[in-house]
Specification:
alpha/beta, about 230 residues, globular, Spore Coat Polysaccharide Biosynthesis Protein SpsA, Chain A, eight-stranded mixed beta sheet
């Protein structure tokens, strides 16, 4: 193996945020602890007024302000990123030890994109089951969610045009396009995401709503029509 092939890929982590002051510091510190020289940590905020930007600026390498919407924010972060690999991590997601190295190893072995199995943090005894079902469905279908820390080589991301400009389901749409190029790497459970969405909205009600929205999107109902039902 020549020196270029052996070089560890540089990673640009892109964290979209909106009113995440309570969670973002823990997320960014867990990321910072695993980054290598040459990696970067970028936050793209969608217009927070709760101090999220100030908290992020103390930890991240770069903080930008964008129009709101995860697709717009993540595309903005990707345009300014310098890494060989783009890693999109939600602001309420914590890395467990070994996550970044697992990603690098997958890319060194030739994967174009992938995602992680996740654990869901919370008080409900059903959250581990929800996580297990989500992880199994994702690996079987080749469709990833933003909670799972999607990563993609810069070349593949640019080839598919980045995230589509959608108010919802941008992760599903990107995965569907990337899946035509290659199956995703399904990496071990090294991310832990907040269970607040499930616990605040009702666990099984949220699961059924998300399944319904995914089905509706899959049969062609525009994301713009679905977004109010998600909110």
């Amino acid at each position: 193996m020549d020196q270029a092939a052996a070089r560890a890929p540089s990673v640009s982590v892109i964290v979209p945020s909106l009113a995440e002051r309570a969670h973002i510091a823990g997320t960014l510190r867990s990321l910072r602890d695993q980054l290598a020289p040459g990696d970067e940590l970028r936050v793209v905020d969608g217009g927070s007024h709760d101090g999220t930007v100030e908290v992020a600026a103390a930890i991240a390498d770069a903080v930008e302000v964008s129009s709101p919407g995860r697709a717009a924010q993540m595309n903005r972060g990707a345009r300014g990123a310098q890494g060989d690999v783009l890693w999109f991590v939600h602001a309420d997601t914590e890395l467990l030890p070994g996550a970044a190295e697992a990603l690098r190893e997958a890319v060194r072995e030739g994967t174009q994109w992938g995602r992680f199995d996740v654990a869901i943090a919370g008080t409900s005894r059903w959250l581990p089951l929800v996580a297990a079902l989500m992880n199994r469905r994702s690996c079987w279908s080749g469709i990833a969610t933003g909670d799972q820390g999607i990563f993609v080589t810069r070349a593949a991301f640019e080839a598919v045009g980045g995230y589509p400009s959608l108010p919802l389901m941008e992760d599903v749409a990107l995965s569907t396009t990337l899946r035509k190029r290659a199956r995703p790497a399904c990496l071990p459970r090294l991310l832990r995401t907040s269970g607040r969405r499930w616990e605040q909205r009702g666990l099984w009600r949220t699961v059924l709503r998300m399944w319904g929205l995914r089905l509706a999107f899959a049969i062609g109902i525009p994301a713009e029509r679905l977004a109010p039902y998600y909110r």
